[in-house]
Amino acid sequence: MARHARNAVPALGLRANAAQFSLLVAVNALVGGMVGQQQTVLPLLATEEFGLTGFTFIFTYVAAFGVTKAIANYFAGMLSDRYGRKPVLLGGWLFAVPVPLMLIFAPDWGWVIAANVLLGINQGLTWSTTVVMKIDLVGARQRGLAMGLNEAAGYGAVAVSSLLAGYLAGQYGLRPAPFLLGLFYTALALLLSGVFVRETRGHARLESRTHVPRADGIHDHLHEDLTGRQILVQASLREPALSSASLAGLVNNLNFGLAWGLFPLLFATAGLPAAQIGLLFALYPGVWGAGQLATGALSDRIGRKHLITAGMALQAAALAVIAASDGFAGWAAGTVLLGAGTAMVYPTLLAVVGDVAHPAWRGRAVGIYRVWRDLGYAAGAILGGITADLLGLHAAVWAAAVLSAATAAVVAARMYETLPPRTG
């Protein structure tokens, strides 16, 4: 009976795959928790234990994380299309094993950077793979909902872990207590991924066999047998929806990378304690994570383009509020708005990639999109660090606000609506 169930013909849809989908949501929450355990703590560790003062130097760990995660995204897509999703997921979690220990015992900042290189590989391989697996399972009709649930779990866990790590740091010190969370997350994720998660590439093959091109001919140039180089060019430059999504993803994560490295330092200028800094930082991914429960499904009903445009514009306004503030109330309002704008954009961009990419090269398309998106971490760290060193912390936030507003304009002008027309 167990062998028959394992070899059963796959079915597409959220309800038909509820158990596996829910398990992958839980795994992705653990992926997000690995980031959240360090976001509140590492900027404080840099200044208080290692005596670092230059913002650009402090942000090197964010840049190292972003670059390695971006590269890992590319290989996650390529390898998952070639060898299957589950082996890539398991391999990604193996890279996470030493990360908490390196942060606990780090004698200098170089160890922190090295730990974030490994964490970037872990995040790129595991998060990309869970995204592709969920798109595989649900089929065409519920991509937005699937991505909303996936990203809500991941970034909700970032928020909860950031808050919990800030509390642990305030109660027990910056090390080792906050990083014990990562040891627990890694052990649980290896158990779930190794024993209970099942391969989903068969679902992608099923969708590929039943794939029907759009009647309006928009995707006629994106056929099944594109080469890896052709996919890269289309997703980066030529295809209007895919390339616009890549740009919006990059700027969105530029904001996140800047917030990761800069916000705790900005909030500390007002003399706020670690617990309040942790609360402020948790508001951003908290609203972001919870909001995606609604925005992903909303994009399945009203479409993708206008939600993305409005979300980038709201992020610009939120960053302007943060830049213009100098106390808890203004920063709290700004981070809530920033989380709301990000929630409108994040799952919707992934749904755009799922709409446009053929099932045969979906993993590679998601990987390339996430390469550009996660290079935003490094761009945010570099932009934030250099601008903060030259002009101050508030000026760095203003720069990100301008870039977000410009991106909203580009998406409005270039992206077409990708939500497949309803039939029947």
Automatic annotation (TrEMBL):
<feature type="transmembrane region" description="Helical">
    <location>
        <begin position="247"/>
        <end position="268"/>
    </location>
</feature>
<feature type="transmembrane region" description="Helical">
    <location>
        <begin position="152"/>
        <end position="170"/>
    </location>
</feature>
<dbReference type="InterPro" id="IPR011701">
    <property type="entry name" value="MFS"/>
</dbReference>
<feature type="transmembrane region" description="Helical">
    <location>
        <begin position="307"/>
        <end position="325"/>
    </location>
</feature>
<dbReference type="Pfam" id="PF07690">
    <property type="entry name" value="MFS_1"/>
</dbReference>
<dbReference type="InterPro" id="IPR050171">
    <property type="entry name" value="MFS_Transporters"/>
</dbReference>
<feature type="transmembrane region" description="Helical">
    <location>
        <begin position="176"/>
        <end position="197"/>
    </location>
</feature>
<feature type="transmembrane region" description="Helical">
    <location>
        <begin position="331"/>
        <end position="354"/>
    </location>
</feature>
<protein>
    <submittedName>
        <fullName>Predicted arabinose efflux permease, MFS family</fullName>
    </submittedName>
</protein>
<feature type="transmembrane region" description="Helical">
    <location>
        <begin position="55"/>
        <end position="76"/>
    </location>
</feature>
<keyword id="KW-1003">Cell membrane</keyword>
<dbReference type="InterPro" id="IPR005829">
    <property type="entry name" value="Sugar_transporter_CS"/>
</dbReference>
<feature type="transmembrane region" description="Helical">
    <location>
        <begin position="12"/>
        <end position="35"/>
    </location>
</feature>
<keyword id="KW-0472">Membrane</keyword>
<dbReference type="InterPro" id="IPR036259">
    <property type="entry name" value="MFS_trans_sf"/>
</dbReference>
<feature type="transmembrane region" description="Helical">
    <location>
        <begin position="274"/>
        <end position="295"/>
    </location>
</feature>
<dbReference type="InterPro" id="IPR020846">
    <property type="entry name" value="MFS_dom"/>
</dbReference>
<dbReference type="GO" id="GO:0022857">
    <property type="term" value="F:transmembrane transporter activity"/>
</dbReference>
<dbReference type="GO" id="GO:0005886">
    <property type="term" value="C:plasma membrane"/>
</dbReference>
<feature type="domain" description="Major facilitator superfamily (MFS) profile">
    <location>
        <begin position="21"/>
        <end position="424"/>
    </location>
</feature>
<feature type="transmembrane region" description="Helical">
    <location>
        <begin position="88"/>
        <end position="105"/>
    </location>
</feature>
<feature type="transmembrane region" description="Helical">
    <location>
        <begin position="375"/>
        <end position="391"/>
    </location>
</feature>
<feature type="transmembrane region" description="Helical">
    <location>
        <begin position="111"/>
        <end position="132"/>
    </location>
</feature>
<keyword id="KW-0812">Transmembrane</keyword>
<keyword id="KW-0813">Transport</keyword>
<keyword id="KW-1133">Transmembrane helix</keyword>
